[in-house]
Amino acid sequence: MNITKLVYSILFTLFSLTVLAQEQKPPVNPRQAAQQVRPPQPPKIVPLQQPPRPRINQPQQAPQQPRTKPQQDTARPVQTPAQAQQGPQQQDRVQLESADDLIGTTINGKRVNKLIGNVIFKQKETFLYADSVYQYRDSEILEAFGNVRINQADTVTMTGTKAIYDGAKRTAKMSGGVTMQDPNMTLTTPTLDYNLDSRTAVYTEGGTIVQPENRLQSQRGTYDTNSKVFTFQQNVKVFSPDYEITAQNMRYNTESKVVYFQGPTFIKGQNGDLYAEQGTYNTVTKVSRFGRNAYILTPEYRLGGDDLYYDEARGYGEAKVNMTMRSLKDDVTIRGQVGRYWRDQGVAKVWGSPVMESIMDGDTLYMAADSLISREAKADGQPSMLFAFNNVKIYKSDLQGTCDSLSYNRTDSLMYMHRNPTLWSEQSQIVGDTIRIHMRNKTIDKMYVFSNSFITSEDSLQNYNQVKGRNMVAHFQDGRMRRVNVNGNGESIYFALEGDSVLTGMNRAVCSDMVLNFAENKLKSISFLVNPDAKFIPPHELQASDRRLEGFAWLEELRPDKKEVLTPRTPVKAPTTPSKAATPAKGKASGTKSSQSKGKKPAAGAAKPTPVRQ
Where is the composition biased (Pro residues) (predicted)? Predict the structure, then answer.
């Protein structure tokens, strides 16, 4: 009887110990239970038969519970009944998925679970993998070591040698050769801070982003995995087979492959370089949209402005607002409000009060027109040309001119002035149907005046020495007119002076060929070459009709100054309809000065009315 009671007492004690051990274990999901629970083995359950293994830095506490599998150890604080009722909040906490071994310890006075081997933690859609992890029991902080990998929603993956994961703040601090990957790029950096809620990564110790088309580097950067936008700061560089970008501040969309500039930015391409202080550049289509002091630099031109568009694939550029275009071969600069450039054609067009500036013999030649077109030579033997259209004005300190249109062959240094060209040099005026100017070393060497050529020179008494003929050739020395040859149908009027103040008479001659000699840009003498018909008229016999050759017109009012050439042009207003009281009498001319076109002049040989100056 006593033996029977003893047996029942032993069995009851064993059963109580088993139930007590099971109540103190954390809940295990069915999958884990199926994989890890073994049939109970009494010899391993009895503490006296299986003494616990020693622990490093293990505090003196009550005897530990028997160990079976690491999943059955305490991976986080034991749930209370109130916590068990929270449901979704409990699922948001960091949860241990698996580990090879678990050791309870204390670090700096904090209770820590040290998990070793194939450690996996989960929080929401995020998984953390590592060789070992310190789990702080009184917080949601994990400190992971060795082959650390964090994966969020199967889209963002980060790897490194160490990480501090804060489940409460939802942040991860990665270090040790960090690599971050998503479907659009791969980022490598020494350290990385990542916010799992905003899905934003920040690095401050230099980083490199690699894509199939581009490689980007910067000292500091931020990556928003939602918008797929990188924000780069300090020493930013972008490399590709077709271009290189250098900047201080830049944003980059890893999906659209568009770069956004903020600050001085240089783009070095195969077909030209670009600079801007703000704007965008599509690395796929090679289309740029720049602002603030932007320019395109090609072997032929430098095209700039505050609003710049350039399509590198098409070779087309457009600049607006404070536009400048500079020809690098001959150091010619054109300024205006709108400029367009076609690289393959070698053509550039500027309008909106365009002005050309060219350095000539230590002086600057300015030329203004309604539009300017430059065309580069695209083949051997083809000239490089500059065209000016409508109301052309030229200013140089010793030479001024006007015409309707102009062409300049930069290859041969030849300039053609078309339709009513007029030139002034000091006190001399030259007109003709067409004027051709030969340049040498950026100075005027010869000038050809074709058809209805007419030279007028004003003396100190405001008399007008005049020479007309079919064609003329003017020779220059050091930029000044020295000699003029008249070829065909020559006529002249020359006033003879004693000193610079007394008129002694006037020579009038008709001769097919003449030679005019100038000194200090003033007519000094005329030589008659073939059978001249000349007469000398004393002052008291001079009539008004004797003082003018047919076709004479002194056009000083059309002579442009520097301010006029550089002043922006405004559209000419249409003339208003005159009132009945202002209607001219029958038979009289109905035109008024205000209705005269500013840029038009009568042909040489006709009286020229005074134009309205803008």
Answer: 39-54
| Residues 272-288 pLDDT 10s | 788 888 889 898 888 98
Euclidean distance between CA atoms 435 and 453, whole angstroms: 9
Q: For residue 607, which of 558, 556, 555 has the smallest C-alpha distance?
A: 555
The answer for 117, left when phi > 0, alpha when psi is -120 to 50, beta otherwise, is: left
DSSP 8-state assignment for residue 329: T
Per-residue buried b or exposed e for 481-505, using 16+ beta carbons within 10 Å of the residue's own CB? beebbbeeebbbbbbbeeeeeeeeb
Query: CA 487 to CA 500: how far, in whole Å?
Result: 30
Tokens of 605: 């040989």
Task: For the chain, state the CA radius of gyration.
Answer: 47
pLDDT digits (tens, 9 = 90+) for 411-445: 888 999 999 999 998 888 999 999 999 988 777 88
Residues forming beta bridges with residue 335, ordered by sequence position: 324, 355
What angle (nearest 5°) sits at the alpha carbon of residue 311, between those of residues 253 and 376?
155
Would you list the DSSP string of 297-317?
E-SSEEEEEEEEEEETTTTEE
493-497 long-range contacts, Cβ below 8 Å, gap at least 24?
Answer: 493/464, 493/465, 493/466, 493/467, 493/546, 493/547, 493/548, 493/549, 494/465, 494/523, 494/526, 495/459, 495/461, 495/463, 495/465, 496/536, 497/459, 497/460, 497/461
Distance CA 466, CA 452 (A): 13
3-class DSSP state of 30: helix
Q: Which helix (H) or strand (E) holds 131?
A: strand 126-136
Question: Largest Cα–Cα distance in the chain?
Answer: 176
What is the distance between the alpha carbons of residues 458 and 426, in angstroms, rounded to a whole number?
Answer: 9
- Kindly report, residue by residue over 250-309, the tens digit of the pLDDT: 999 988 989 898 888 898 887 778 888 888 989 888 898 988 888 888 877 788 888 889
If we measure between CA atoms, which residue out of 315, 254, 257, 299 comes closest to residue 281? 257
d(CA 531, CA 509) in angstroms, rounded, equals 10
